[in-house]
Amino acid sequence: MSEKILIKGNEAIGEAAIRAGCRYYFGYPITPQSELPEYMAKKLPAVGGVFLQAESEVAAINMVYGAAAAGARAMTSSSSPGFSLKQEGISYIAAAELPCLLVNVQRGGPGLGTIQPGQADYFQATKGGGHGDYRLLVLAPNSVQELFDLTVEGFDLADKYRMPVLILADGALGQMMEAVSLNVKTAPPVAKPWAVTGRQGRKETNVVNTLSFDKDASEQTNRDLKQKYDLISRQETRCEEFFTDDADVVLVAYGITARIAKSAMEKARAQGLKVGLLRPVTLWPFPAADLLRVAGTAKAFLVSELSTGQMIEDVELAIRCRKPVYFYGRTGGNIPSTEELYQQIVEIVNKGGN
Amino acid sequence: MQEKLFAITPGLTEASTHYCPGCHHGIIHRLVAEVLDELGVLDKGILVEPVGCSVLAHNYFAMDTIQAAHGRAPAVASAVKRVHPEAVVLTYQGDGDLAAIGCAEIVHAAMRGEKITTIFVNNAIYGMTGGQMAPTTLEGQVTATSPFGRKNAEAGRPIRVAEMLATLDGPKYIARVAVNKPANVNKAKAAIKEAFTRQIRGDGFTLVEVLSTCPTNWGLSPVKANQFVEESMMPYFPLGVYKDEEGKQ
């Protein structure tokens, strides 16, 4: 029988990380994710791990850079303004092709914003965020169970592709408590012959570097990264679909919003309305092909996010403007009710989906 | 049979450095490499290099190396040492990297007593970016961004890093040295050796500040640059040991 516990979202990430073999956590307190560093501070010493509260988010991400370069499973977490501060370091980690896990438990922004949940860091998470041509593998859980499962899997994906993996959550998920099954399935450990360990008898030195004065070598680095990102797009794109086969109106939402959208969809179905839901699990790579397929039969799409509209751009691109795309977002820390989304669906249906 | 008096130290590769004529980086690299070799820890050495002229130090040191973002070497090194406590971890940083953009990282790594060694190369100017004002630029010194000479009323007085960090409890050995003449080179080597010996012993944070030249950006010949170190820098940045505490924390 699997071990099941009632646990808070932020703490579930911490428990998952420890069970996935992460022994190095570096971070800086910020609401609404502080339960995660607190959990790591409490639990890591018992398993021989290191919790280090950095002097800033900037230092924290560079500690992750160091620990990952040294061959360890390492992570950091933050919330929106703190995550912005980490962007330079994330660009370096992506360039150096180091595996690590990043967590952004989003709040409302911009600026200091609010400590209530938001999803307005979508652009930052999926379009690079820091300088240069790079991507993060972005996982968007929608339950405490998925926070746990995708954290474990995130470390494996990071090692597999030698890149930072981001868990993009939000304040609601981080703060809610749900029952979680603690079954952990991890991939076999990946050898890291490139890690900086001290030479220890090695003839050649290991160097982690992101600088090149040779423009051709620099271009090649970017092309190599692109090739890796293309491979990930082919192999790791994921989404969940409900009733998309016969749906006239297809909702598109991720994370906490996808749960509200699902309730609205169920209410609509109970009223005999043909409504479906497509929930991206990976925000990058984005499930564009799945959306394009659904666009063959659906009459309209309704995108809902906790922002004024960010993922909607990817949805419109994915379906190549073949069907109308409506948007309903709440922002600044507000979240839509099931009823609000249901009303939006009814309006679209009444228009005949056009 | 003639006795070999000088050879390439195993701590350095045979690559020619890109440093300008008269620059002290070559001497300081050599001293660090010799010391690590003499202490028998080259195989355990991990270098965290900065942004600045020594951003290419991995081409010269025969050691595993991580190139850090501007100013962040102490944060990177802190984590590396936590992952590999048996390694000998050093950051090699210039004065812009350490005293300006990376001031928070060095202060907090020192405060935590991270068991790393920082070689802090102070030449009172930004070298790689073309000679702009550093936090260590002397009063009245002309640079690309202080064309009328540094004015303390606007820019403040130059930071004395060794003295500042010596006020913290985490550091166990902090010294300021110079390599402008052979006698000073020998003293500098002894200080660097002491710093690494303390790290290997597990005492705590150690730092050696090395006064250094930048003939190109100072607009001085190598000989005049060495005189500038002696006559202009040393009165404001006195040589000496600023922290020397025994024992573990």
Q: Could you explain the architecture of this structure?
A:
- The complex is a heterodimer of chains A (354) and B (249).
- Chain A has 354 residues and is an alpha/beta fold.
- Chain A folds into two domains: 4-194 and 208-236, Thiamin diphosphate (ThDP)-binding fold, Pyr/PP domains (Rossmann fold); 240-351, 3-Layer(aba) Sandwich (Rossmann fold), CATH 3.40.50.920.
- In chain A, 40% of the residues lie in helices and 21% in strands.
- In chain A, helix 1 (9-19) packs parallel to helix 2 (35-43), helix 1 (9-19) packs parallel to helix 7 and helix 10 packs across helix 13.
- Chain B has one domain (24-244): Thiamin diphosphate (ThDP)-binding fold, Pyr/PP domains (Rossmann fold, 3-Layer(aba) Sandwich), CATH 3.40.50.970.
- Chain B has a seven-stranded mixed β-sheet, sandwiched between helices.
- Chains A and B meet through helix 3, helix 5 and strand 10 of A and strand 1, strand 2, helix 2 and helix 4 of B.
- Chain A: This is 2-oxoglutarate oxidoreductase subunit KorA.
- Chain A: Keywords: Oxidoreductase.
- Chain A: Pfam families: PFOR_II, POR_N.
> Structural class, from helix and strand content of chain A?
alpha/beta
First and last CA, distance of chain A: 50 Å
Shape of chain B: globular
Under the CATH scheme, which class of chain B?
Answer: Alpha Beta
Mean pLDDT of chain A: 97
Q: What oligomeric state do the depicted chains represent? A: heterodimer
Number of strands of chain A: 16
Task: Give the spatial strand order of the biggest sheet of chain B.
Answer: 2-1-3-4-6-5-7
Number of domains of chain A: 2
Number of strands of chain B: 7
The overall average pLDDT of chain B, rounded, is 97
Distance between the termini of chain B: 51 Å
State the helical fraction of chain A: 40-55%
Give the proportion of residues in helices of chain B.
25-40%
CATH superfamily of the largest domain in chain A: Thiamin diphosphate (ThDP)-binding fold, Pyr/PP domains
Largest interface, C-beta closer than 8 angstroms, per-chain residues: A-B, 37 and 35 residues
Q: For the report, how would you describe the main beta sheet of chain A?
A: 8 strands, mixed
For this structure, the CATH topology of chain B is Rossmann fold
H/E element string of chain B? HEEHEHHEHHEHEHHE
Protein name (chain B): 2-oxoglutarate oxidoreductase subunit KorB
Domain Thiamine pyrophosphate enzyme TPP-binding (chain B): 52-210
GO molecular function, one term (chain B): 2-oxoglutarate synthase activity
InterPro entries (chain B): 2-oxoacid:Fd_oxidoreductase (IPR051457), THDP-binding (IPR029061), TPP_enzyme_TPP-bd (IPR011766)
